[in-house]
# Entry
Amino acid sequence: MSGLNLAATTKEEQDKVAIDLVASGVVYKERLAMPVVAELVVREQPEHLREYFRARLEYLRNSRTRMP
# Structure
């Protein structure tokens, strides 16, 4: 189970996990028609992770078609 310990990963991997959580929260709110401005959330992310955040948003938005 040590492979699942987030504290044992690099800072970069921890940052990516945090970005994934934020992106999933944005998409969740969009699906529930709750007010959220994705571009404002993008601007809040660190500069070096913004492109990764946009890619995760796109992936999660497209995963809607695969879910019931």
Remarks:
- The two ends are 31 Å apart (CA to CA).
- The domain at 10-66 is CATH 1.20.58.250 (Methane Monooxygenase Hydroxylase; Chain G, domain 1).
